[in-house]
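re: that chain from earlier
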Amino acid sequence: MNFWKIVKTSFRYRGTILLCIVTAIGVSVLWGTNLSAVFPFMQITFKGQTMQDWVDGSVAECETRILDFEKQLAEGVSDEKDRALIENKLKIETATLRGYVWLQGVFYAYLPTTPFGTIVLLLAALMFMTILKTAFLVANSVLVAKIANQTIYDVRNQLYDKCLDLELARYSQEGTAVLMSRITNDVGGIGGGLGDVYGKMIREPLKMFVCLGIAIWINWQLFVVTILVLPLIAWAIRALAKQIRNTSRQIMKEVAKLYQTIQETFFGIKIVKCFTLEDHMRQNFHEQGRTIYRKGLRVAFLDVLAKGLVECSGIMLVSIALLVGAWLVLTGNTTLFGIPMSERPLSIEWLVMFYVALLGAADPARKLSDIFTSLQNACAVADRVYELLEAPVKVADPKKPVTLENNSMTLEFRDVNFDYNPDRPVLRKVNYAIPYGRTIAIVGPNGCGKSTLLNLIPRLADPTEGEITLGGVSLRDVRQTDLHSRLGLVSQDAILFDDTVYNNIRYGRFDATEEEIIDAARRANAHEFITEVLPQGYDTPLGPLGNSLSGGQRQRIALARVILRNPQILLLDEATSQIDIESERAIQESLAEFHQGRTVIIVTHRLGILTLADEIVVMENGQITDHGTHEELLARCEFYKNLYREN
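^ sequence. v structure.
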């Protein structure tokens, strides 16, 4: 079960777990002692007896029974079976007498000699043990919270690291909202289950076992009769557990869909408002919420049913014990339907202690039923978490990576095919070599595979067939960090982070000096608007995704980040497609200087930037159909000629 894999993750905190178990044992022992031991003693003292009186009477009763058994043996018993039975009873009474004699010495030495004094001592002892139990409980709860939160922290980090390793296609297939839901909502659900495992699932069974141990010590035969119905109850609870787990898993899928709807609504709020889609989106959201509501009700019903089953079971067990035990005490018998139930007749005090022990076990059992749904939910969460954690990474580093040492490396595509779906190929038999230092522009209609071809270079995906080499070395044989250190990317949507302008540029190279960062901004034609337009200059916070800036401003800061990185290979994916003419002109001026002495690959449908290109590649339907200079293509390529006229 995947949830137990999460539990194993927490085993690294062995010291905390050991302390957790020790404190749980302390709580359990004091729980059982407080409940089972005090009540019979109180019953004795309220009769006007002292503990010394009670132990003296118990010693006298044992001595009388021993004399009776010895007399029976002395008179002679013809039946060997009866003689063996009497001898066994004699041994038991002799052992019991030794125990009472030991207690007699303790009671006379340390306990008060009056009934009221005994009550005062017992209540003081009860108060002390209760305070001690509370201290153990507080320590246990803090330790449990520490284990749960440390493990959640670890699992959430593992999930985030895994998402960083996933190929780009996985984000499109899963949807970022689904991945966000797993990292935030799902992982949060693990905490409750872990808290129950190290809290109630250790503490409450120990409390129950202590009480049941006392009951077994008093009369194990009566205990066995009491628990005969447990297998049937366990089967019913297991069936409920399966239903709760399945329903919880469905709820988490629906919550992920809800995240997706919220994300689409907020990111596309302009379209929602301008196309009057509010009612449609509202209806979608309400329907998804209603589905979660209905499934939540089902989980609540199953949860209450499970708790009710546990509570009814507890009452049934105590009732059976009460019925059988009362009959044994009232009749003085030691057998039930010919089955031996005790070696010696049960006294009312010991029977009361037996009942108190069973009742003491009932409360932990009730609390265990409370965690039933929480554990099933945690199991469902763990299944979803490990579905992502154990997902194969299609783009991985090689076991024996090859180091890229040559700075002047030709980038070559060799029979490259790529598809997201086998029946819909995106790239087909792409063969093309780009010598180092050349600037290549790739043009073509939407959906022809331009951006996909560009994405294969930083290994955001790997070719389905064929290979891409850099300096004759397959990119699959290169460590990704080594490859990425030589690349710079400016995409259509210039992605900035919720940080200052200064830090967003500094992401290009963390060891850069302030002078280098400002110089990169100057070269990207961004320094002027940063210092004159933005309220805090380079210290201006940009907000989520840099949305406080215009498209052109974002693009120039993104270009400054790439200039600071100073890559050997620069990738521009529709970098000027969504900005104004002035910003496009400023970026082209920056690139006119910066593209010298490095390989530059430009994907564009705006032909103004083509003046930077040494060669233009034309793509149609996932294939390279032609390549050459602007003049050569105008002369021979009808498709390029039409594309040029349209722009």
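Residues 278-331 form the longest helix (54 residues).
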